[in-house]
Amino acid sequence: MPDLIAGISVGIMHLPQGMAYALLASLPPVFGLYTSFYPSLIYFAFGTSRHLSIGTFTVLSIMVGSVTERLAPDMDFLIMNGTNITGEVDITARDSYRVQVAAATTVLAGLIQVVLGLVKFGFVGTYLSEPLVRAYTTAAAGHAVVAQLKNIFGVSPTRFSGPLSLVYTLKDVCSLLPHTHLPTLVVSAVSMVFLIAAKELNSFLSPKLPVPIPVELITIVTGTLISKYAHLKSNYTVSVVGEIPSGLSPPSVPDASLFGEVIGEAFALAIVGYAIGISLGKTFALKHGYKVDSNQELVALGLSNVVGGFFKCYSVCSSMSRSLIQETTGGKTQMAGVVSSLIVLVTILKLGPLFQELPKAVLGVIVFVNLKGMFQQYSDIVTLWRSSKIDLVVWLVTWVSTLLLNLDLGLAASVTFALLTVIFRTQLPTYSVLGNVPGTELYVDVETHREARKIPGVTIFRSSATVYFANAELYLEALKEKSGLDISKMLIYKRRQEAKQKRRERRAERRAKRRAKRERQAQRAAKQLSGSVVFSVELEPSSWKDTCISGNVPDKESQGWTERENGTVFVIPTAPRTSDCHCRWEYLKGGDPDGTSLGSMSELHDSDTTTLGSSSDDTQSQDLERVSLGSLGKWTWDIHSIILDLSTTNFVDTVAIKTLKNIFQDFSEIDVDIYMAGCQASVVEQFELGGFFSQSITKRHLFASVHDAVLYCLDHHETTSFPRYEPSEEMDSSTKP
Fold it and tell me: Looking at domain 431-488+638-716, does it have CATH number 3.40.50.2000?
């Protein structure tokens, strides 16, 4: 019984909406009734939603109308009188061809939906976000209003197609306003006032009424009676619906030669119709506790279009207004759809001819007033401004592109822009350094959580988005910035230091040879001289000067050394003279006798210090200990490990794998260990397939959580000079790896 009541209520709504929306598709009203009958029966057998009302819908009707008027414009059907053009349109031939175009487009759209459903491509509807769909339907409402202005004002504007067609049509309508047909305008105004007042009364009384008042049907019946008995067509030349044939037409095969010309519009119809239907169906399913199969919905909707196209129907989807009526009046199953189809069938078979005197202006007003809900969606702008600026931009771009580029190109541009916003947001994620919340195993952003503490010697790096080809380079740059280690500069520095060290070793080797030679010469000179000798070595051996110290000597000489500076080499005894005249010498290049220039590596540059009796390795070690990377933002001993938190990564591509391998390789050259934490099993499998792991990068670098990686780093480097830090004071030692 609830399905019977709901079916009658929805069936009564099908009648005015079917005839009115057929005008949006530029088809005779009777084909709107056909569209309300056949597809509903097919969906009853194959659909999974219990509350959707399948039939005509505003947006799809406008999209079909754009195709029919593009391929069958009035200019192609002007009546010829011999060689002269009378200016009149052969309406019968035009409508017949438009029906063929609409049927071919509908069948092709249905086939696309069936194929997508069979290959489990039901998720395609998820690419149409709610802001996009709402903006698209809002813009489509603008197209519907402009399309009905000719019926409301009784004018005949030129219909344009393609980009900016809405602007051109609206401009043409405005230029024809001085030629408005006053009787038609009066019918439109009276119908609009009556319909709006009746709908407001219906909304006010709806809590007290078991079923809503069929105000559209009452408006149609009233308008038909007034038009018939006032002879509006003959006396005031008011345009009426015209002949409505009774009975059902036999099925016919659509013209397949038209498929190539309507493929773009057919695909747009398939996607838009499915997106509207599945979003509405999931809403009702969630409310009433049952499941809607997205792939099966594609198949059901596709079969409804394919079968309907053979019976001269045009594209269908679920109607929000009729579905709400079916749900609020107690509908439980799709038996309500069968009952509504029977109501439409009775009208087609017996009651259709009664509406032949119905003014088209009344149908135009019904379409106009029923767009109230779509016009209310402009409030989304305020809501999205407060909640999400990105969604607001998607809404505005969709609305503008749909208005200016027409419905098919507007949809393509809108989906493309929406996907670009996703790419941009994943390409520019938030990068953060994590710290431990004391007493827990939680690691949070140190910049947004004051209680988080950094782990000494460990940098924990995380990206808010997955790492893939579009942001892999940015990931590496952010890691350098957050860790404070500019790898490229540090590697350049390291290579320079290695080159300098090689030069030092070569010079030390040459100096060792010269030193050995000088020692031999000094020993020979010591045997010949009775006293100690201190000599100064100049650049050229020929200019050496020896000073013999014997007897009374100056104070400086009594201290056991003599210096002679030539700006290049100094020879200084490092110990007092002994009786056997053996001394320990130190050679300095570019320095001073006091050794005060041995401050830091930044002052020495290419200087070399070699002490006799000490190895060059010790000298290199001392030099490297003096070197700091303060100019590069970090001291070499501030960090020993970097942990990459990959818990937000749900896939990796070849570019990401290559980038991570480079990170391991580059940081290892500056003695910084890299570890990865939180990798999903599927990501690890992709690492294996991509050849990520090797002898240098093993699975020992993988950890289940950041906490495990931190504990390993601290245990692994506990012998270093880093301060010990316990991430969790309450941690059980058994959790350590």
Answer: no
